[in-house]
User: What shape does this take?
Amino acid sequence: MKLAVMGAGAVGQSVAQLAGEYGHTIAGISDRGGAVWDPEGIDVNAALARKRKKGSVHSESNIDLLEADYDVLVEATPTTLGDAEPGFGHVTRALSRDRHVVLANKGPMAERYDEVMAAAAGSAGSVRFEATVGGAIPAIATAEGLGAEHISAARGVLNGTANFILTRMQTEGLAYEHVLAEAQDLGVAEADPSFDVNGTDAGLKGVILANVLDGGGHTIGDAHIDGIEDFPANALDVAGEDGMTIRLIVEVTADRVRVGPRLVPKNDTLAVTGTMNILQFDTEYAGQLNISGRGAGGPETASAVLADVDRLGCEPGSKGSSQAE
Amino acid sequence: MKLAVMGAGAVGQSVAQLAGEYGHTIAGISDRGGAVWDPEGIDVNAALARKRKKGSVHSESNIDLLEADYDVLVEATPTTLGDAEPGFGHVTRALSRDRHVVLANKGPMAERYDEVMAAAAGSAGSVRFEATVGGAIPAIATAEGLGAEHISAARGVLNGTANFILTRMQTEGLAYEHVLAEAQDLGVAEADPSFDVNGTDAGLKGVILANVLDGGGHTIGDAHIDGIEDFPANALDVAGEDGMTIRLIVEVTADRVRVGPRLVPKNDTLAVTGTMNILQFDTEYAGQLNISGRGAGGPETASAVLADVDRLGCEPGSKGSSQAE
Assistant: This one.
């Protein structure tokens, strides 16, 4: 497949670097500074070297990447809330041209899910978004396999930065501000960690899961979100004395998304440590299913994007039933 | 889709009972005593009531189910080793008629994987076998999503009976024979528990995983298998004193399948308790991914069969690339 990658942050760069190993061609990549395009495949290393040196992948071969002749648009620009632009516009323009879209950008699937799905329904292209929930964890594919109508609830730890901070606060007995600074030094937290520590990032993932389970209808505005900003270390001490810990838990139940710090037994399946993520589905016939793994990182998230590229055109049920004709 | 179910044990019965909720029709079901067929959909409850009363689903409408006009053959007859018959013959006959096949029977995929795949390659039908490894755990779909070539190893606890026995022996300090009898009373172990406790069942699952990861070439004869028969309780005591436990671990590495009791830290991800199963993949780009859930049970395994039915015709990569034309 011929991929056009919009966004050259950690995920976009990793997609560009790994696509060849998955049998795909990077025909173009863009960032805020411009784009580079070659239908035979761009020189990825040269483009990323330009970005390191000059701040953009842009070369003389500048182009409106959205209008180019790709098979799949990989939307990996930064997540935005509200109108989810410019990501939303990228997605709908590609679909209107009957191209496939694979998103790593959470904005369109959390804030404008119904509109994206309506655009996909009117397009020969498909939309997939595994990378928007839980990085390397196959959250969406597993939900599709179980069947949304057979899942009664989902919950999990879906922000590695917040989990790292809570884990370190408890094991080392350190204060929030201290551990946050440490996480920033290690690159686990960004310079502006707001979305990670105020629960927004976990909330977006919960909203996307809710949209998958309910067939749409949710936005971040409907979610009830508490974060871990300035979480008191002594609350963790008190919890620890009773064999408990505290985790920033996303809960998706019938029609409701909640995010907040919750007491969890230390030996509970949900009590993953460090930057690990875990997602738990309660199902009608298959009991409880848990998936844990790396919830962030360039190559990890890129592997989810590239798994989605392989799944394009294979929405569960659709092809199986058409083959029966 | 119109399903023909061969085998009316716990899994076959659950598939028949749940198929309607997944949007499919049970057009036939068979057991050793005969078959019942109705292209418009059989009366499942009546067939299962006949089986309970008279020992077979068989009614006047007897038929050679394999030759009937179904879309998907669900092969849920008991697992056999060696030539994997009669399951293997059922699978290849259905494929030769360009029908899809979904297996719960481990025999053909462990003992004759290469032949099954060759038959599928020459058929308009596809073969899927999610239910053969880890019950409700989406082992095969997850491996396909990650891409077999990007998985370096797999390991896990894939036999709930053996895990229940080891868990109870350690927590209650009881002897093997005592806990086995208890497991049989609870229905966790069968009257003849040989395959569960001698490692064969876990070995078959490891061999199937190895076939998926390596594209075939493995049979149970090549696996190195130790079980937990008459496992000494004091070995668990000694392990427990050092914060360890013992689990029957399946390991699939490059070209090798091993099953045996292994020391595992008590708080390790692999140390699931009771009848739970867990599967761990080491990947090239996505780190380590863990999936845990119910590894056996009629409805749980049936849900894996029915998820496979929805995936038919959507082998990873195949449809995505053809859509690009």
